[in-house]
Amino acid sequence: MTEPTPAKKRKAAPATSAIASPWASAPDREQQREAKRHAVLSTAAQLFNEKGFHATSLDDIAARLNVTKPTLYYYVKNKDQILIECVRQGLEMTIEGIEASRAAGGKAIDQLMACMQVYAHIVTQPFGMCLIRVGDEELPPDSRKELRRLKSGIDQAFRRLVAAGVEEGSLQPCDPKMTAFVIAGALSWIGRWYQSGGEYTPEQIAQQCITTLCEGVLRRADVPAVARAAPAETAPVAPARKPRAAKK
Question: Where would I find the HTH tetR-type domain in this sequence (predicted)?
Answer without folding.
Answer: 34-94
